[in-house]
Amino acid sequence: MSFISDLRAERLIAEIRSIGDALHPDAQKAFQKLARMGSGAIPKILDALAVADKTETAAYVDILTQLVDNKNFPVLAQGLIDGNPRTVAAICCALTASTNYTASLLLELLGREEVPKAAVLEVIAAQKNRFSVRDLLQHAYSQEGNEKAALFRIVAELADESAIPELVSRIEGKDTLARVHIINILARFNVPEVSTAIQRQLRDGNKLVRQAALNALAAVDGPVEIGPICQMLRDPDMEVQHKAIDVVVRAKDPDTMKYLIDVLKDEDEHARRAAVEVLNHLGTARDIKHLLQAIKDDDWWVRTRAADAGVAGGGAGVPPPVVFFSPPPQLVNVSVSYSYLRDNATTH
Questions:
Q1: Tens digit of pLDDT for each residue in 227-275?
Q2: Residue 315 main-chain phi, psi, to 5 deg
Q3: Total domain count, the chain
Q4: Can you give the pLDDT at residue 78?
Q5: What range does the domain containing 83 cover?
Q6: Structural domain includes residue 175
Q7: Residues 302, 248: Cα–Cα separation, whole Å
Q8: Of the candidates 334, 318, 314, which has an alpha carbon nearest to the alpha carbon of residue 326?
């Protein structure tokens, strides 16, 4: 039966080519006969796609779209493996246009090494509304970097508030890249459950996770719990520390100074410098007592930047700049009125 089907399909395709015009009535009749052959015509159509012109290709794609179902899906899947780029593109068009097959078959293709993953992911993206967030997440973990990222992009497009519990439940898994993607998706949802889950990641041992958590908190449209973020100014990774500075400054939380004073006294000079950077952006006249403590620091850079913050944040009550530091030479031209700080702040 397969031999007879192949022979009939070959004759119809040869007839179409001999006519030379896919839009000719006789060619259209041949296409209709080919479609009526059903799944038996699919192998020869896939062969014909390699040399078909645009008009013929469109007609063949239309036939494949009509014929695809669960039974002949494996034939099309094999075509993705064996076909040339034109054939692969045509199969993807047919799979994109049809819903007459089980969508999970596409996800199963991602588990086959020989299948062109990029082509399958294009179809999945086009058919995304046929999948649940959970289905996509389950398959994303087994994929390599590019394919994993592509699936998480589709998850991000699908995810709404109903997906929050599923995403939060996976935020502390073993797959670091997956966790980063999940944190980035959750950042869109400004709800307490999400904020709490993301802030827990600030203590994670992997710097990529901590960075992602800080990026997510920076995107939050509303107040954040500033205390844990201030502690990130002590992070051993400088990139994380710099991001923490950005987040704290952006938050402009009125309680920031309360949490910064301990960081200013930290044994690590980088942590102290990070705290002074925040003070340089947020310090006001009422924060002078904190600045005075920082100026007493042995780290010349901390004293210098804290002094600058004193001038920037002192407001109208700060008198004209007075140079009060003497050598070492690193501290020349530090502009701040020490007498003002002494008279208007209380030391600890």
A1: 999 999 999 999 999 999 999 998 888 888 888 888 888 888 899 888 8
A2: 75, -165
A3: 2
A4: 94
A5: 1-101
A6: no
A7: 18
A8: 334
